[in-house]
């Protein structure tokens, strides 16, 4: 294949040649000047960036130090408040234990009082009276029940306050743990130097965490925890005073009621024993009188029996003298005296029979009175057995209550 002929090279003049050389010189000089200015600018930029880096790192270190100081400050505040809250939790637990123990201590006195009331319902007859002992027992029962209710309400209040204290302790512990972790991270960052962490670059989108908070919110969070904890401690301090007052008041009220009830029992036992002794005295007098009346009845019976033969003899003589014959049947003094004798004997027997009937009535009345006295003494014995042998025995065995704080 035939080749196309090429065009001859362009020809330049000497002027073109010099012009081209001058242009190259000027361009080179211009590029040299530009490069020199760029090098100067780069040197200045390197110094400025180095200085900026140094200032920034110094500022970061300063701010890290300040931040560490701020966190340590709140760390110490939390630590002090933790100790205070834990101390109050311990005291609240002790108070709760004391209140629960006091509530348990009311069970036996209440049971004893109720049993005394039930036992006294077994009294009989006239002794089943609504006396001062009964009044004091009812008051004692109401006092113990009222104290138990008051202790239960106080237990509920202390339990709730203990829960709030523990909640504050939990919040403080969590805040302390977070600050410990934050201090560790900031201390680690503060001690790192260039070239000690290898190649590391934070992703652009992670420069600002959406969950992060501003410093005022951070301070406010811890301050709220501290203020809340302080408030709960103050609330418990007031409640502790109330609890002590409740314990002291309940103890005093129950002991006072117990003392007054015991005194009422002692007075009533003394009155019942005195009445029983008087009944015994009267029973002995009645018994002695019954013996005397019995002897009197026997004597009257003997007197009646002694007069019947005399009456029979008088009547026999009168009848025999009525058999005298004819003119001998004279109403002589003997006749009249026999008639009067018989009348006298008959009247004597009648009077003795009336006396016998009265004596028997007296004897029966005395016997009935003796039975009544004996029944009343048995009633008093039952009352004394209940009040002294059962109720006071139970009451004397009751343990001491909790002591006032």
Blueprint of the fold:
Blueprint: H1 14-105, H2 107-120, H3 132-191, H4 215-321, H5 333-396
Give a brief outline of the structure:
The chain is mostly helical. The protein contains five helices and no strands.
Q: What overall form do the CA principal axes indicate?
A: rod-shaped
User: SSE order in H/E notation?
Assistant: HHHHH
Rg (CA only): 62 Å
Biggest sheet architecture? none
Total of DSSP H or I helical runs spanning 4+ residues: 5
Uncertain stretches of 5 or more adjacent residues: none
How would you describe this protein?
The protein has five helices and no strands. The protein has 405 residues and is mostly helical. It is rod-shaped and about 240 Å long.
List descriptors:
single chain; 405 residues; mainly alpha; 83% helix; 0% strand; rod-shaped
